[in-house]
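Dear V.,

Thank you for sending over the compound details. I've combined the ligand you provided, zinc ion, with the protein sequence from our construct and run the structure prediction for the complex. I'm sharing the raw inputs here so there's no ambiguity about protonation or stereochemistry in the SMILES, which I know was a concern on your side last time.
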Amino acid sequence: MKSKPLALAIVLACFSAPRPAVDTVNVYGNSQQSPSTQGGGSGSGTVLDSDKIQLPDMGDSSGTLLSPDQEKELGESFFRNLHAETTINADPEIQQYIESIGHQLASHSLSPSSPFHFFVVMDPNINAFAGPGGYIGVNSGLILLTEAESELASVLGHEIAHVTQRHLYRSAESANRMSIPSIAATLAAILIGTQSPMMGQAALMGVQAGNVQFQINFTRDHEKEADRVGMSTLFDSNYDPRSMPIFFERMQQATRFYGNGVPEFLRTHPMSESRVADTRGRAETYPFRQYPDSIGYQLTKAKLRVMLEADKKVAGQYFMGQALQGTPEQRAVASYGMGLVYLESLQYDQASRLFAHLTAEYPNQPQYIAALARTASESHDYEKANKLYAAAVSKFPSDQPLKIEYVRSLLKSAQPAQALDVLQSLSDKLKKQPQYFELLSQTYSDLHRPGESHRYLAEYYYVTGQTQEAIMQIRLAREEKDLNYQMLAIINERLNFYMSEQDEKRKAKN
Ligand SMILES: [Zn+2]
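Below is the predicted structure of the protein with zinc ion bound, written out as C-alpha cells.
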C-alpha cells in the first residue's frame, strides 16, 4: 500500500538560512506570493492571509496530518530521490564515521528516540541540510572546510535541532493535493540546490507538480533556535560550543572568497554578523577546555581530501606538509593520507610500505589494516588481501566497512560463495544500503544465479531513485529459471510495488 495523495505542505530550513516571516510552502497553483513571505525577512511571526491555508505544526497535538509511518515513507522517498539528483558517498568508512558522530549528537538531542540518518553528499560546495524523516546530509566540501571535529559537530547539531524542533514541515489541508513522491522529489531538488527555494516562481517551474506549487521560505527565528538548541546538544555531547561561531565565521569568509561563484545556499542565506555574534556570545557562557579531534574525524577528512582532489600531487603535497607537524597520531594520519595518494596513483609499493608501517604501530586501528589490504587487492595480490581481511574481520567482528571491502576482494578473486557468507553477516542497517544490493547482485551473478542477480540489481536501482530501471531488472528476473516458488512470489510483489511507485511519480509530473 503506497502513498495516498497527501494534503501536505513542507517547510524546511537549510543550513545557513536567515528568515522571512513565515515558514510556508505555498500549495496554491500560480498564486501570488504572500507579501509576508517575500524578501529577506521581517521576522514578524506567522502571518497568513486569511484565505490561505492554515499550517498546524505537525509536532503538536492539534491534528497531526502526517503519521510517523508517512513521515518515514516521505523520508525514504526523499533519500531515494537524492540519489538520483546527486552523488551520495558510498565509502563505508566515511559512512560509518558520519553516522557515529551524528548519532552521538542525536542521542543528546531533545528527541533522542527520533529516527535519524546521516550521510555525506560528494559535492565540493559548502552545504548541509535536514530533510524529512530525520535524513541529514552534509556535503564533503563542508567537511573539508572544518578545521576541528567540533566544527562539524556544530553543523550537525544545528541540523538535528531543525529536526527535533519540527522546523521541517507544517502540514496543511488544501484543494491541491500532493503525493509523497512528488513532495519528496521536490524537496530533494531544493535541498541540494539544483532548485533554489528563494528564486521565485520561474525558477521553481522545474519542481512544480501539476498546478501545485512549492514555495519555501526560510525563517530567521528557526535558524536562531537551531543555533541555540544545537549548541546545547553540542556541549552535552562533549563537543566544543565555541566551534560554532568559529565555523560560522569561516563560512562567512568562504562566501567572500567565492565572489560571484558563491554556492546557492550561502548566496541566498548569508551568514549574518548578528548570527555569528549571537552564537559567539552564547558560546562564551560555557566553560573553556580542550576538545581533541577523534581519529575517525581525522581519517575521514584525509580520505575525503584524496577522493575530492583531482590533482593527486596537490593532495600529496598537503600530506607531506602535515607529516612534519602535530602529534604522533596526526602525523600518522598524514602518512595514511599520503598512502592513499600513492594508492590512487597506482604506486602500490609505496602505499603498502606506509600502511604496513601504520598497522604495525597502530594495530587496533581497522582503517590502517583495511588500507593495507585494499592495496594488496588492487595490486592483484588477492591471497595477501583476503588473509589480511579475514584476520581483521575476526579481530573487529562488528566493523562493517571491513566486511564490505572484504566482499569486494573476494569477488575480485572469484570467491562468490565466501562473499555471500560475509554479505549475510552484515548489520541490518547496512542491508538497506545501495551498495549491499549492488554487491549481492554481483555475487549472485558470479554464482550463476541470474534471477536473484536481477532481483537485487532491481532493488539497487529502486533505492537509488531509478524506478524505471528497477522495473526492467525485475522483469528480467522473472524470465530466469533459477527461481523457486517463494522467490518468484517476492519478485511479483516487488514488480507490483515498483509499478505503483512509478505511477505515483508519473502522476506527480502531470
Ligand atoms: Zn538551519
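A first observation: The pocket of zinc ion is lined by residues 13-15, 17, 158, 162, 223, 226 (CB under 6 Å).

Warm regards,
I. M.
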